[in-house]
């Protein structure tokens, strides 16, 4: 069940698009948690931000960026999710390096 998300966790959704998975995750981690949606398409970030505001999901933070160079601080994320995006990235190894970098020790 979506990485067994728990209240208060910090989740990164790589390639969040319009935010569908990020919104599900935001409801699971609740107001004490945080979800970072990362996407390379400005229109998808804008759409996700509007939808999050309309749904009252203040814990959802959408950022413009590349999976190979994530605008996320090191060791700040409990769970990394991605749905049908990493396979589209040119440098998959770099994406996994970045995912490891942002994960807290013991993250998943």
Question: What would you say this structure looks like, in words?
Answer:
The chain is an alpha/beta fold and 108 residues long. It has a single domain, classed as Rossmann fold (3-Layer(aba) Sandwich). The chain is 32% helix and 19% strand. The chain contains 3 helices and 4 strands. Strands 3-2-1-4 form a 4-stranded parallel sheet, with helices on one face. Helix 2 links the parallel strand 2 and strand 3.
Q: Which strand order does the major sheet show?
A: 3-2-1-4
Number of domains: 1
The CATH fourth-level homologous superfamily:
Vaccinia Virus protein VP39
The number of helical runs is 3
Helix content: 25-40%
**Which quaternary structure do these chains form?**
single chain
Backbone CA Rg: 13 Å
**CATH architecture verdict:** 3-Layer(aba) Sandwich
CATH topology: Rossmann fold
CATH class descriptor: Alpha Beta
Percent of residues in β-strands: 15-25%
Q: Whole-Å distance between the termini?
A: 14 Å
Structural class designation: alpha/beta
Query: What is the number of E strands?
Result: 4
Low-confidence stretches: none
Q: Sheet with the most strands?
A: 4 strands, parallel
Shape: globular
- Mean pLDDT rating: 95
Order of secondary-structure elements = EHEHEEH
């Amino acid at each position: 069940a979506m990485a067994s998300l728990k209240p208060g966790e910090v989740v990164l959704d790589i390639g969040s698009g319009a935010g569908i998975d990020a919104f599900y995750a935001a409801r699971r981690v609740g107001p004490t948690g945080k979800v970072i949606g990362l996407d390379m398409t400005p229109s998808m970030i804008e759409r996700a931000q509007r939808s999050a505001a309309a749904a009252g999901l203040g814990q959802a933070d959408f950022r413009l960026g590349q999976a190979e160079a994530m605008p996320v601080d090191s060791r700040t994320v409990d769970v990394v999710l991605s749905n049908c995006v990493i396979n589209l990235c040119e440098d998959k190894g770099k994406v996994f390096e970045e995912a490891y970098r942002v994960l807290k020790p013991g993250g998943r």
